[in-house]
Amino acid sequence: MIASIPKVLISDVDGTLVRDDKSLSARTEQAIKRLRNAGIAVSLISARPPSGIYWIAERLGIEGPMGAFNGGTLFMADGAITHAERLDKDVTDQILAMLEAAYVEPWVFAEEKWMARRGETLHASHERKSANVEPTLCDDFADLSMPTDKIVGVSDDRALLARLEREACDRFGRAATIKRSQPYYLDFTAPQANKGEGVTEIARAFGVHIEDVLVIGDGHNDVAMFERAGNSVAMGNADPEVRAKAKHTTVSNEEDGVAVVIENLLAKMDV
């Protein structure tokens, strides 16, 4: 599948590293540990907040740096934030107003909190597992003054989210990065908070060239890192247009696609 051996492997989390129930399989855990023991560095990048990544890093023995909020926040396993890109206040207000007008549920991530209007809302159970925190209930975001890491528009109306994504990109231009991290999540982060910039910064922190990095992902927000890294693999469960942007494909997350990629690499290394 992959001709050259990377110096760093960076994996997305949801829909990629973990299964649909958000669990990390023993096969994937073992494969990553074997890869690290063979001298290949491993990192993670995700739309999740750091709180949703710590436990995975601990299981896999990854110290960092890693990327949260689509690469907008770089952090270490000990909790140290090494870099953070956040939305401007006026842009935050405009995004929230746009979601309100479209009757799309807004979530706000800021200061290590996940803020929502209701505790039992659409996809909240998924987010509890992903973010590894309980929502902080907030009736009104109008007085939000803290720097915002990410805003999420939540809806099962995929056509609506696709339309909002196009309209928001036209409206906000370079003031925000706007991508769907899941079919039902439309993410808004700072302009430099995208996975292309994120994997570039992670590579720099490891002291390697981006051409020596292999990335694996499944979502529309992963395309930016596919375009930046030297090698890329899309999961079998990714949308066809996402798979088309990667240099290689693997099987689905339910079939431990990340482990399959790593096992093939280890076989090439004769490890």
From TrEMBL:
Keywords attached to this entry: Hydrolase
InterPro entries: Cof (IPR000150), HAD-like_sf (IPR036412), HAD-SF_hydro_IIB (IPR006379), HAD_sf (IPR023214)
GO CC annotations on file: cytosol
One GO MF term: phosphatase activity
Domain of life according to the entry: Bacteria
PANTHER family on file: HAD SUPERFAMILY HYDROLASE-LIKE, TYPE 3, PHOSPHOSERINE PHOSPHATASE
Name the UniProt record assigns to this protein: Cof-type HAD-IIB family hydrolase
Species, as recorded: Qipengyuania algicida
